[in-house]
Amino acid sequence: MTETIADPAALRAHYGSVSRPAALKQLSRLDQHCRHFIARSPFLVMATAAAEGRCDASPKGDGPGFVVVQDDRTLLIPDRTGNNRVDSLENIVANPQVGLLFFLPGYQETLRVNGRARISTDQALLDATAHAGKPPKAVIVVTVEEAYMHCGKALIRSRLWDPERHVAKGDFPSLGRIIADQIKEADVAETERMIEKEYRDELY
Amino acid sequence: MGNGSAAPRAESRLDRHCRAFIARSPFLVMATADGQGRCDASPKGDGPGFVHVLDDRTLLIPDRIGNNRIDGLQNIVAKPQVGLLFLLPGHDITLRISGRAGISTDQAHLAATAHQGKPPRTVIVVAVESARLEPGQALRDAAFWDTGRHIAKGDFPSLARIISDQVAELGEAETAERLAQSYRDRLY
Q1: Which chain B residue lies closest to A30 (C-alpha atoms)?
Q2: Which of B8, B29, B68 sits opposite A15 (nearest CB)?
Q3: Which of B135, B144, B163 sits opposite A83 (nearest CB)?
Q4: Pairs of residues, one from chain A and one from chain B, whose beta carbons lie less than 8 Å apart
């Protein structure tokens, strides 16, 4: 890169000041609108970072209101580890700080909640987030530090809720096909390595 | 995989499936953290293929006009590691990438990601360290793409209404006007 911005002052100078409503609407607890948003939301992405700084964006989803608002500073996120990898939980154990982005399908703005998380197996918390009588394996308890509505420009530009923009089923391969391709390509690579080895070691 | 379910494995480079996914994706969430470990999840979106695959280890993400909070960019300046989650509308499969990012104003990077001749303000250049296509159980459980389950207009308070409730001195009508203008005139 020839032109790289590598310090905070240069970055702020390049962008100018924060626009006024964005600077004003940050909350330190969940107001009625944030609580309502979370009660209707079936999906969020959770940002976590490992102690050494490696970041992870992890999707969490279920029926609307699957995240329980315990009070105006506390959220309970059920962790139903189906085939989920545990990266984000390991990150929370190492570094409790999380950033959450909640979606309300059909609505162009998102809700951002940042705070500190811990992983609980407290029976009361498991019961509070049970789904169809089935408790999750663990609950991510988030203490809210800041919450704010995020402007809708990224969703508007992407037309995320527009069904006309859905990618046709046949226009992207199934996971089965992708896995088969990876195995096949691995087989080819492995076979080539073996052939190479034979040529090298077993010519005479 | 702990429960034996099959999933594609992580690759250290973008294979053709990952590249095809990115070429069709109009949206991602970027995870960053600051020097103190405080994390941020930031949405990025535009037309399909708005993220440019420079080569099988390098992505260019245009940073277009937002609210100028630039939390994610400030984090990158402090700590280059990022996590990306790409979505493909109508599909539950997601693409998860981790890598290291830098912020570029290189003319070639700006030109490669221009929209109708308008370059972004900066380009986030990501050196890919790992990429993995995932089954997307969370999107399926959320019925994320099911338009029949989407909330209808008027079924949730507008942002203007929310802002006017949160900030006493901002009236709803005036805020609605300002937002509409911003969403109309300041997307690029």
Answers
A1: B166
A2: B68
A3: B135
A4: 308
| pLDDT tens column, A37-68 | 999 999 999 999 998 888 999 999 999 999 99
State pTM to two decimals: 0.91
Please, which pLDDT band fits residue A189 given cuts at 50, 70 and 90?
Answer: confident
Q: How close A124 gets to chain B, by Cα (Å)?
A: 24
Q: Dihedrals φ, ψ of A15, to 5°?
A: -95, -20
What DSSP assignment string belongs to chain A? --SEE-SHHHHHHHH-SPPHHHHH--BSS--HHHHHHHHH--EEEEEEE-TT--EEEEEEE-STT-SEEEETTEEEEEE--SS--SHHHHHHHH--EEEEEEE-TT-S-EEEEEEEEEEE--HHHHHHT-BTTB--SEEEEEEEEEEEEE-SHHHHHHTTT-GGGPPPGGGS--HHHHHHHHHHHHHHHHHHHHHHHHHHHS--
Residue A49 sits at the chain B interface (C-beta within 8 Å):
yes
CA A66, A137, B42, A7 torsion-angle sign: positive
Q: Please report residues of A whose CB lies closer than 8 A to that of B58.
A: none
Tokens for B51? Answer: 């993220």
* CA of B5 vs chain A CAs: smallest distance (Å): 7
Contacts of A155 in chain B (CB under 8 A): 27, 43, 45
